[in-house]
Amino acid sequence: MTARPVIGVTKPTHGDHFAYAAIWLAVRLAGGEPLRLTAKHPHTDKWISGLVLGGGSDVYPELYNGQPQPAGRYDRERDRMEKFWARRARDENLPVLGICRGAQLLNAINGGTLHGNLGDVYDNADYPSTLPGHIFYRKKINIAPGSLLRRIVGAKTRDVNSIHKQAVAEVGEGLVVTAREPNGLVQAIEDPASDYYLGVQFHPEFLTYRRGDLRIFKALVDAARKRDEVRREAIGAAK
Fold this sequence. Notes:
The protein has a nine-stranded mixed sheet, with helices on both faces. The mean pLDDT is 91. The chain starts with 5 loop residues before the first strand and ends with a helix. It has helices spanning 17-29, 76-92, 101-109, 131-136, 148-153, 211-238; strands spanning 6-10, 33-37, 50-53, 96-99, 114-115, 139-143, 157-160, 167-168, 176-180, 186-190, 197-200. The longest helix has 28 residues, at 211-238. The relative contact order is 0.17. By secondary structure, the protein is α/β, with parallel strands linked by helices.
């Protein structure tokens, strides 16, 4: 039986246990072995085959030349931990999935910026802030033809959840927008030069009862497994 690729999954040191559990389950269902990464236990000495940057508090604005907000909720230790892993993933060409905050962080470390207040920028951006709204509210996104996300979900449109207050503004270097809402808000970014480098503004870990959303994790695990196989072959050839 083929070994499960180890997929690092970031989360805050405290809290967000339900979101982490949902990602853990999605990675397991997709054939991977999740490894929890936090600022307290970053596991920087571990070998991982793929990376999921999870959701949570706002990315600190200094990462994209923005201004901190007095009421902002930040986790700067987590920012530093995730920057380490995101940059290591870049250096080692690891498959990466960024979810909500994670997508925003991928954009920021590649030189992009974020919108801190969506209501000031987009029409129809009055998204739910209650638990029932986060669970049941859906909005439509349009997915670009030829994109990784389009190939994974197999559809040009998708109804997704909404659990965010920020979003990508200027797109980072080397990245392209591959999904938007009808009002223009960015819902997915990718690096077309990578096999799997995807950031999504929605939360597919809460939608894995739908095959298209579970396939987001399966494609990540498959890319990680393929990379492991290439690495093992290269090591074998060098002996």
